[in-house]
Amino acid sequence: MWPLERRRPVIRVGRNRAELWTPQRTQLIRTESRPLSFPDGTALVRAIESLQQARPEFKLDLVLETAWLPLMLLRPGREVWDRTAVEALARHRFGLLYQDPAEPVNGWSIRMDHRPGDSHGLAYGLRPSLLRALAAPGADGGTVWRSVQPAWSWLRGRARINAGSWLACVEQDRSILALLDGSRPTVLNAAMPPQVEDWRSAVRVEA
Description:
Blueprint: E1 10-13, E2 17-24, E3 27-35, H1 41-54, E4 60-64, E5 71-74, H2 83-97, E6 109-113, E7 121-126, H3 128-135, E8 145-150, H4 151-156, E9 166-170, E10 175-181, E11 184-192, H5 199-206
Parallel strand pairs: 1-4, 4-8
Antiparallel strand pairs: 1-2, 2-3, 5-7, 6-7, 9-10, 10-11
Helix pairs in contact: 1-3
């Protein structure tokens, strides 16, 4: 069960499976699922195409979990106003975590949620193989994505939560816990277990 979303179905892609969630009354319900072999882009394409066939009349939102679309909290400080410098910081940090000779981070597409002068921001890393895989479904014109979003930003856009509150995003292979200041986190743990028994204790640890 996800937060209220009445308008259209969503395909959500995690590490282990791709899922079709469709609106039923006041909530989204998982109605279809296809297994994945991470990070096999060919399997990803087949799974997405199969789910699209289940609801071909809809324009879909595609939501990607962190396994496919890594995110990272940045703390460049308020003195850094150069977007190029902030992107270089993000690329360096991703390079420390994702050392893949087949797809080095210097070839990734980096997307940032950061404004010049902000002390905190978010960065997302897009592998070239992921971009190619996402371009493949619907190449014949049969599919139109209304949006392609990280799971974190998809949830944040629908969660009614005040600044200074904690928000948890549960994914297939992990949980993400963040302290929000406005729309952006100032504390973020993107590698928590997928099942957390005591969220209050987890919040105390992160705090």
